[in-house]
């Protein structure tokens, strides 16, 4: 792969979903994530797809986290702190709607936070979430900061925002 435009986003999504079961999927995932985008980071190093994904994730999901500067990469803590806020279609903790559980991410840590961020963005661009947004109008919904400690009433009345990406795919 020579640039971000050369990445088959559907294949990338499938590699993330099959990451635990396939060495080939792992190799493809790491190859994509380490691909230079052709841009440079603030420190002068080459920006990788991993860097770009973490910046986009931060822009979409971390805007209300204290001390998080928009334009910076989301780190492990930011991804872990926002993962429980992501729902498919509506704010519900059943496995079909609670995003991280639907995709079997019971723990988000240093080993998988970037994979989770890549999964969310690739799903929005080419996975079932993309298809359901186009066909059924169902998008990714972001809830409030601490849904795990809300009462049922608070959860029902929380402020939600829908997030979707343009249908042209990620560049």
Describe the secondary structure blueprint for this structure.
Blueprint: H1 9-17, H2 23-33, E1 36-40, E2 46-48, H3 49-61, H4 76-83, E3 86-88, H5 99-102, H6 113-126, H7 128-136, E4 140-142, H8 152-156, E5 161-163
Antiparallel strand pairs: 1-2, 3-4, 4-5
Q: How is this structure best summarized?
A:
This protein has 171 residues and is mostly helical. The chain is 43% helix and 10% strand. Residues 167-171 have low confidence and may be disordered.
Give the number of helices.
8
Distance between the termini: 14 Å
Largest beta sheet: what is the strand line-up? 3-4-5
Tell me the β content. Answer: 5-15%
The count of DSSP E runs of length 2 or more, i.e. the number of strands, is 5
| Largest beta-sheet characterization | 3 strands, antiparallel
What is the string of SSEs from the N terminus onward? Answer: HHEEHHEHHHEHE
What gross morphology would you assign? globular
Helix content: 40-55%
Q: What is the typical, i.e. mean, pLDDT? A: 86
Runs in which pLDDT lies below 50 for 5 or more consecutive residues are: 167-171
Structural class: mainly alpha
Description:
This protein has 171 residues and is mainly alpha-helical. The protein has helices at 9-17, 23-33, 49-61, 76-83, 99-102, 113-126, 128-136, 152-156; strands at 36-40, 46-48, 86-88, 140-142, 161-163. The strands form two sheets. Strands 3-4-5 form a three-stranded antiparallel β-sheet, with no helix packed on it. A hairpin with a 5-residue loop joins strand 1 and strand 2 (46-48). Helix 1 crosses helix 2, helix 1 (9-17) packs across helix 6 (113-126) and helix 3 packs across helix 6 (113-126). The protein is globular, with a radius of gyration of 16 Å. The protein starts with 8 loop residues before the first helix and ends in an 8-residue tail after the last strand.
């Amino acid at each position: 792969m020579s640039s971000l435009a050369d990445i088959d986003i559907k294949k990338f999504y499938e590699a993330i979903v099959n990451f635990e079961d396939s060495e080939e999927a792992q190799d493809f995932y790491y190859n994509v994530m380490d691909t230079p985008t052709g841009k440079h980071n603030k420190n002068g190093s080459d920006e990788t797809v991993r860097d770009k994904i973490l910046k986009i994730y931060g822009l979409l999901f971390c805007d209300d986290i204290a001390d998080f500067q928009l334009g910076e990469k989301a780190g492990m803590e930011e991804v872990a702190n926002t993962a429980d806020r992501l729902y498919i279609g509506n704010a519900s903790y059943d496995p079909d709607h609670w995003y991280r559980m639907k995709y079997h991410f019971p723990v988000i840590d240093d080993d998988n936070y970037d994979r989770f961020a890549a999964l969310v963005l690739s799903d929005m661009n080419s996975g079932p979430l993309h298809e359901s947004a186009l066909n059924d109008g169902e998008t990714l919904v972001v809830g409030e900061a601490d849904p795990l400690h809300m009462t049922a009433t608070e959860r029902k009345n929380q402020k939600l925002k829908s997030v979707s990406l343009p249908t042209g795919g990620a560049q």
